[in-house]
Design goal:
This protein has two domains: 10-36 and 157-289, Distorted Sandwich (Glucose Permease (Domain IIA)); 80-150, Immunoglobulin-like (Sandwich). The protein has four helices and 18 strands. It has helices at 4-7, 16-31, 37-52, 286-289, and strands at 62-70, 77-78, 83-89, 94-100, 105-109, 112-113, 117-121, 132-135, 149-150, 188-191, 197-199, 204-212, 216-223, 228-235, 246-247, 252-255, 266-273, 281-283. Strands 10, 12, 13, 14, 15, 17 and 18 form a seven-stranded antiparallel sheet that branches. Strand 6 and strand 7 (117-121) form a beta hairpin. The protein binds zinc ion. Zinc ion (ZN) binds at residues 11, 185, 187, 189, 268.
Length: 296
């Protein structure tokens, strides 16, 4: 390809500017009291509810798909207690989502919603089966075309591969340690089409979710228990994760993009021993990535 030279993108690797940004981001997060996800989501849910009445044209809610967000076995495989995002149309009037149980069904109230998505916690009694939504006035949606698999929490993986799809590790320039005009590449690039899903490789807490001119939209996660941190860069848009939120292995982080200084769609992935850009050291992620299981 003609642009192959240009496609050897440069990233922020070790730039002092990023450190300043990172510290600023941390300070802001601390000032905001590191909001927990549940609190923030309930605030959003209230706002969503008030929007629901404004636009008129009430349509019958329609479910098109779902993704498990937290405490998941895989993006389409939940556990009792998982957070589930259902996507579709006319969902801003949905009051509850109905799951199958051993003896029948159980409905559970939404946690967050807008026209295109509803988030709910999978009830403790839920078993594998198709799901549907019900509005406040009792209108039912279609049933999901696929059943939601509900598995025991013991099957939640401890580690998964960060990209939900086929990737290429590229040539030497994409590797950890490749020269980048005065500094060296601190991560591994994983080439994948823009829009491909990204998930957390481990159980972790969200440290940063912001924009940088070189990194683009990026997220930094801190693993709980091993003093490792990992960064996902050039996301297609801002991640929906909230700083301070805890995520499980396989939880949705965002989607592959090429924001910031990136030429071609890919994930720039960094794996740090210790604190990211604050005293820790980056290690070559590739041998580790090769050991990880795909999340579906
Ligand atoms: Zn890179």
């Amino acid at each position: 390809m003609v642009n192959s030279e240009i496609r050897k993108h440069r990233t922020l690797d070790g730039r002092p500017g990023l450190l300043v940004l990172a510290i600023a981001g941390l300070a802001m997060a601390l000032a905001a009291g590191l909001p927990l996800s549940g609190v923030a989501e309930r605030t959003t849910a209230t706002a969503g509810a008030s929007v629901g009445g404004g636009l008129g044209v009430p349509g019958k809610p329609q479910i098109k798909g779902f993704t498990c967000l937290e405490r998941c076995v895989a993006p389409l495989k939940a556990t009792p207690g998982s957070k589930l995002r259902i996507t579709g149309v006319y969902l801003n009037r949905v009051l509850k989502v109905v799951f199958r149980t051993e003896g029948g069904t159980v409905g559970t109230r939404f946690v967050d919603r807008d026209a295109a998505s509803v988030e709910v916690d999978v009830p403790e009694k839920a078993v594998t089966g198709k799901i549907y939504a019900v509005t406040g006035t009792g209108t039912r949606s279609n049933k999901s075309s696929e059943p939601l698999e509900v598995l025991p929490a013991s099957q939640i993986p401890r580690e998964v591969f960060p990209v939900r799809g086929r990737v290429s590790y590229g040539s030497g320039g994409a590797r950890f340690g490749a020269p980048r005009g005065g500094y060296s590449h601190q991560g591994q690039d994983l080439m994948a089409p823009c829009g491909t899903g990204l998930v957390s490789i481990r159980r972790a807490r969200v440290l940063f979710n912001t924009y940088h001119s070189a990194a683009g939209w990026y997220v930094v996660l801190r693993n709980l228990g091993t003093n490792t941190e990992f960064a996902y860069m050039h996301l297609i848009e801002k991640s929906r994760l909230k700083v301070g939120q805890k995520v499980g292995a396989g939880s949705v982080v965002g989607r592959v993009g090429q924001t910031g200084r990136a030429y071609g769609c890919h994930l720039h992935f960094e794996f740090w021993q210790g604190r990211w850009q604050m005293g820790g050291r980056p290690i070559d992620p590739l041998p580790y990535l090769r050991t990880l299981k795909r999340s579906r």
